[in-house]
Amino acid sequence: AAAAARLSSGAGGQPEAEGPSQATAMLRHLLLKLRATGPVTVAEYMREALTNPSQGYYTRRGGIGESGDFVTSPEISQVFGELIGIWYISEWIATGKPKAFQLVELGPGRGTLIDDILRVFNQLASLLSKCDVSIHLVEVSPKLSEIQALMLTGGKVQSNPEDKSAYMKGISKTGIPIFWYRDIQDVPPGYSFYLAHEFFDALPIHKFQRTEKGWREVLVDIDPEVPDQLRFVLSPSSTPATQNFIQPEETRDHVEVCPEAGVIIQRLACRIEEDGGAALVADYGHDGTKTDTFRGFQNHKLHDVLRAPGTADLTADVDFSYLRKMTQGRTATLGPIKQWEFLKNMGIDLRLQVLLQNSRDSATHEQLLHSYDMLMNPKKMGDRFNFFALLPHHRLAHPDKKHKPESKAPLPPVAGFGELLLK
């Protein structure tokens, strides 16, 4: 809202007085850049603030967890990761138990989610005994990849100079090989399951505003009134992004587009079409209805996106209608459906009952109920987060169903996206 107010007034909203230390190295870098080149797109600003090699928020710290700037679902409850692990096994069984699968996670955070999934794979080891499972993590942050390695392998990893694609490899505590990559392109082809949990929301967005003269891109510039402060301005004329990213049928007056998300979804769709597998995306977002969702988080509180860049997490809601469009029909898509609904369909209530019966002390009991409420309550994470899946077309419809409908056995339902029926 503050951003929108500044946009319409063109005035740099005055933050509370700050000492010279708040003129972060990243801000100084951006001021120099803006003086040299003029205003930059919001996407360029986000990319610098989050992933600049020396001063970016993720490359330097990446504050996940209680002591960081935001908490994610796997940090709240082990059940979240367990149910996602079961989703992949369910899809593996539904597609005839292929002899090998890769589990590829984009932006794995601290590795908590993959750790919970590996525990499920270990508990169901007899089921997976004839399957060759490997884990592939796509991570740009050196800091976070160290944290992941420590959690997943106990720190037993080696850098991988002879293999140009993976920069690090190790073996999980349960004996499964793990590889680290900087780009999804580097992950080897093959039957794969993809996981993107709170990944797409951190990718850089372009912002556009409808005006009387047509669409204009929102840019970031120096505030002439306060020379070491940033403000939003509108491009004087249409930009290349305006011409390429606004759909002709667009009805909203303010639109955010994430071209990088489009490219990644296209790559996933191509891989799933060629090699099989599935992708599961979990994030906060909307189905092409929201307008201004760009915001910052610092110490679990909302933070002015233009203040002290590099010290806060910047994020925007994922537009699932755009992701669906960008698959270009190469895969089928399911969702988005609300997190509470997906987890309910995955049997979270049954899992909670088992954990409550097995918990001996009241503190664990309380913790289980509290984390369940955080994940499921529509006022907390239950309604804010959505699940969305990419699957091969043949997973949802027999290719030759129209010719001989009676000869085909019904396809197993996709877990999580339909009601759970207990036999």
TrEMBL record:
<dbReference type="InterPro" id="IPR003788">
    <property type="entry name" value="NDUFAF7"/>
</dbReference>
<protein>
    <recommendedName>
        <fullName>Protein arginine methyltransferase NDUFAF7</fullName>
        <ecNumber>2.1.1.320</ecNumber>
    </recommendedName>
</protein>
<keyword id="KW-0496">Mitochondrion</keyword>
<comment type="similarity">
    <text>Belongs to the NDUFAF7 family.</text>
</comment>
<dbReference type="GO" id="GO:0032981">
    <property type="term" value="P:mitochondrial respiratory chain complex I assembly"/>
</dbReference>
<feature type="region of interest" description="Disordered">
    <location>
        <begin position="398"/>
        <end position="417"/>
    </location>
</feature>
<keyword id="KW-0808">Transferase</keyword>
<feature type="region of interest" description="Disordered">
    <location>
        <begin position="1"/>
        <end position="20"/>
    </location>
</feature>
<keyword id="KW-0809">Transit peptide</keyword>
<dbReference type="GO" id="GO:0032259">
    <property type="term" value="P:methylation"/>
</dbReference>
<dbReference type="GO" id="GO:0035243">
    <property type="term" value="F:protein-arginine omega-N symmetric methyltransferase activity"/>
</dbReference>
<dbReference type="InterPro" id="IPR038375">
    <property type="entry name" value="NDUFAF7_sf"/>
</dbReference>
<dbReference type="GO" id="GO:0005739">
    <property type="term" value="C:mitochondrion"/>
</dbReference>
<keyword id="KW-0489">Methyltransferase</keyword>
<dbReference type="InterPro" id="IPR029063">
    <property type="entry name" value="SAM-dependent_MTases_sf"/>
</dbReference>
<comment type="function">
    <text>Arginine methyltransferase involved in the assembly or stability of mitochondrial NADH:ubiquinone oxidoreductase complex (complex I). Acts by mediating symmetric dimethylation of 'Arg-118' of NDUFS2 after it assembles into the complex I, stabilizing the early intermediate complex.</text>
</comment>
<dbReference type="Pfam" id="PF02636">
    <property type="entry name" value="Methyltransf_28"/>
</dbReference>
